[in-house]
């Protein structure tokens, strides 16, 4: 939790540079230890078998980005998507070994909606150089192409991508990822909360991050949700980079297009969570969305029902967000009132409506059957897919909106191995 403590020291002057670490600040430290562990184990005993059974990955060994380059001195574009997967045995455990640059090959057609969202950004005059959006409706924008944003400088001047990301996040780089996913994933034997940094990998090699952005209010009590508080800090594919690592905190239609998900059936696999269980898109069946098991608290309700007793006031938190009957803790620092205006790290303002903070949610305990998901945001419907997670959306008056916990739940369902990209927090 140290990372959170540090990030929570909100100093406007360092706001922009702090953002770079805000959603993945722990990843540089984590990465080095992950690699160290991985290498040690690989050296012990590794058997490699090429597999023919891994069709869900988006492979590519020839197409290179025209916007993101391998180094500052090279004009060689980064290989997009996933370079290869294989079945590997380390010790006595089988893994899917994945090699990927972390750079996707998204091509985005600018629709009226996308264009309107760009020009109507509340800080458009500041977010775009000269206030001008450098694209128009009907154009196809390539991942990393300059659309006029005043992108922060990290990596952009070295390897390209400036102008594609709004101020705050820097540019992604070739991470030459080598990751191990358990080939025969097992349910966790102990509670394993996930934290900042990668919690999984999409089938195009981009990283999956969880709900958090590392920021909080009120002495580390009220944690903000990345898909909500970073609404203006993601690109037109709903992703951004932290320390060069491009990642998604929630569903993206850019990947849906690549995996051919039109909502007419159970979604295909979009990626794998670090425990080895697959994560599918938002649909459970034809036009039926999988449903998160997490609900928003009613702050006006009695304490016995998870409220604080006063309408619109965040004066208490749940003792256990997995068990309402454990009651509330009213000794904590109050959070902003429901609807109160708050400012994000990128200086955008939001109404802190119910659902703005992690602490606004609880797991309601509904039985995971049909489209209903469990606390981990997954289920097993005995439909041949085995246990699987879903990316979750909700239909709000005809608009599909990311639904908490968005990707994997706050806890992993499966066991996290020592050579995993993730660890228990
Ligand atoms: Zn992020
Ligand atoms: Zn399902």
**What share of residues are in beta strands?**
25-35%
Instruction: Give the spatial strand order of the biggest sheet.
Output: 13-14-10-9-15-16-26-25
3D shape = globular
Q: Ions, cofactors, ligands: which are bound? A: zinc ion
| Structural class label | alpha+beta
**Are there runs of 5+ residues with pLDDT below 50, and where?**
1-44
Distance from N terminus to C terminus (CA atoms, Å) equals: 8 Å
What Rg do the Cα atoms give?
Answer: 21 Å
Helix percent band: 10-25%
Q: What does the main sheet amount to?
A: 8 strands, mixed
Oligomeric state of this protein: single chain
The whole-number mean of residue pLDDT values reads 89
Structure annotation, total helices? 8
- How many runs of DSSP E, i.e. beta strands? 28
In short:
With about 425 residues, this protein is α+β, with helices and mostly antiparallel strands. It has helices at about 1-10, 15-20, 25-45, 110-120, 125, 155-160, 225-230, 255-260; strands spanning about 45-50, 65-70, 75-80, 80-90, 95-100, 105-110, 140, 175-180, 200, 205-210, 210-215, 220-225, 240, 245-250, 270-275, 280, 285, 290, 295, 315-320, 330, 340-345, 350, 360-365, 380, 390, 395, 400. Strand 11 (about 210-215) and strand 12 (about 220-225) form a beta hairpin.
Structure report:
- This protein is of the alpha+beta class and 425 residues long.
- Helix content is 14%, strand content 26%.
- The protein has a domain at 2-106 and 170-293 and 366-402.
- It has eight helices and 28 strands.
- Strands 13-14-10-9-15-16-26-25 form an eight-stranded mixed beta sheet. A four-stranded antiparallel beta sheet has the order 1-4-5-8, covered by helices on one side. A two-stranded antiparallel ribbon has the order 2-3.
- Strand 11 and strand 12 (222-225) form a beta hairpin.
- The model is unreliable at 1-44 (pLDDT under 50).
- The site of one zinc ion has 7 residues, from strand 13.
- One zinc ion binds next to strand 13.
């Amino acid at each position: 939790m140290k990372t959170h403590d540090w990030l929570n020291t909100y100093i406007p002057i360092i706001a922009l540079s702090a953002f770079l670490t805000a959603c993945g600040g722990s990843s540089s430290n984590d990465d080095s230890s992950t690699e160290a562990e991985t290498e040690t184990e690989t050296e012990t005993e590794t058997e490699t078998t090429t597999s023919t059974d891994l069709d869900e990955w988006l492979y590519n060994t020839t197409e290179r980005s025209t916007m993101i380059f391998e180094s500052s001195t090279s004009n060689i574009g980064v290989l997009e998507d996933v370079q290869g997967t294989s079945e590997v045995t380390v010790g006595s455990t089988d893994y899917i070994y994945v090699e990927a640059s972390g750079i996707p090959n998204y091509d985005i057609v600018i629709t009226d909606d996308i264009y309107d969202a760009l020009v109507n950004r509340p800080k458009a005059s500041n977010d775009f150089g000269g206030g001008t959006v450098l694209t128009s409706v009907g154009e196809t924008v390539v991942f990393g192409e300059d659309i006029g944003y005043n992108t922060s400088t990290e990596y952009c001047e070295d390897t390209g991508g400036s102008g594609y990301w709004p101020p705050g996040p820097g540019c992604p780089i070739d991470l030459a990822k080598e990751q191990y996913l358990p080939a025969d994933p097992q349910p966790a034997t102990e509670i394993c909360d996930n934290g900042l940094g990668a919690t999984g990998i999409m089938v195009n090699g981009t990283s999956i991050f969880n709900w958090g952005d590392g920021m909080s209010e009120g002495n580390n009590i009220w944690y903000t949700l990345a898909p909500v508080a970073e609404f203006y800090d993601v690109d037109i594919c709903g992703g951004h980079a932290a320390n060069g690592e491009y990642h998604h905190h929630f569903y993206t239609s850019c990947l849906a297009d690549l995996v051919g998900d039109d909502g007419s059936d159970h979604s295909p696999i979009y990626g794998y969570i670090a425990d080895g269980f697959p994560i599918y898109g938002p649909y459970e069946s034809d036009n039926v969305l999988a449903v998160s098991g997490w609900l928003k608290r009613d702050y006006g309700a009695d304490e016995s029902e998870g409220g604080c007793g006063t309408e619109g006031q965040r004066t208490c938190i749940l003792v256990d967000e997995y068990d309402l009957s454990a009651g509330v803790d009213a000794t904590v620092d109050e959070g902003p009132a429901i609807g109160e205006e708050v400012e994000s790290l990128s200086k955008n303002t939001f109404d802190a409506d119910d659902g703005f903070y992690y602490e606004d949610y609880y797991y309601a305990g509904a039985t995971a059957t049909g489209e209903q998901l469990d606390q981990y945001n997954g289920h097993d419907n005995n439909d041949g897919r085995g246990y699987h997670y879903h990316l979750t959306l909700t239909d709000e008056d005809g608009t599909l909106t990311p639904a908490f916990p968005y990707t994997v739940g706050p806890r992993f369902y499966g066991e996290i191995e020592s050579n995993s990209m993730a660890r228990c927090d």
